Amino acid sequence: MSLKTKRSLQANGTNKRFSKLTKSHYYMLSKVAKYLVEHQIAVIILAYILEVPGSEKFLFLRENPKTGHYEKSMDDTFFIFFWVVTFTLLRAVTMEYILVPIAKKGRIKKMTQRTRFAEQGWSFLYYSIFWTFGMYIMYHSPYWFDTTYFWKGYPHKELTYLLKSYYLLQLAFWLQQLFVVNIEKRRKDFVEMTTHHVVTISLMFFSYIFNFTRIGNAVLCTMDFADILLPLAKMLKYLRFNMFCDVLFGIFMVSWLVTRHYIYGHIIYSTWTEPLLYIEYKWVPEEDYYFTKNVQRFFLFLFCILQAIIIFWFCLISNVAYKVIKGDGAHDSRSSDSERLGMRILNQLHI
């Protein structure tokens, strides 16, 4: 055996041993990382109990002691991070220990359908709670059905505890949704859904930074209402409550038009026409004043992208509804003669 061959074999042996060590090293690191991810909520809470400096930033919002109100702060990122993780845990626990057992009791036999039922159940619970939360804030605000107060008194840099916590929790949820959309069964409108999430997060982030949380609160409320009804209709579909599914889907279609096109359209119109009636264009960061023509254009651009996606989805739903009513493709492999309109539309949409 030549010296060159021996060296080659030795090198190969060394590489294999190094490869095994590397794999073992990364395996250990991945196990440690997984453990930290699964237990970071407990770690944060334990750190707070032990009074570790800085741990309170993950759990509580910082109040301005002079005014008793809350302003935006870099520490908000800790709070958001904690709730991104918490929503992930709450979603998993709620689905596994509450919603999947309900699906079993509802005689949903296929595991895939139980999972989808649980996913829709989580969405229904979340949007029901946060739509109510957001509407409560709006009802006790000056901008309740009065868009002029989106702008009067700007900049609105001081927030109540309820509004700030609502806003940051919603932002945490939508950040977590970017993760969810990639672990759920891939949908045909995956690109549109991802774009919707990115635009929503951008709107929330910049409206928070630029002190336009009032208009952000209003937009979230207009969007969240239809997201209560559609998941509930899907749940009824899986539970085979045909008549209730049918009625609820009709209410959902009407609510979509009213909230996501009519009311949301008024919010877009307000952003376009009303600001200069009450405030002026200027950029003064030291006063937390961030309203220029480009800022206005930026928000209008994001609003219009969001509206375009919503119109696309409504056209898709309307097209399927038309075909079902007309009788074209009204049945697929999962449909039965006893299914009513709402059931058949949901089946045709494959949702």
From TrEMBL:
Organism encoding this protein: Scutellospora calospora
Domain of life: Eukaryota
Protein name: 2617_t:CDS:1
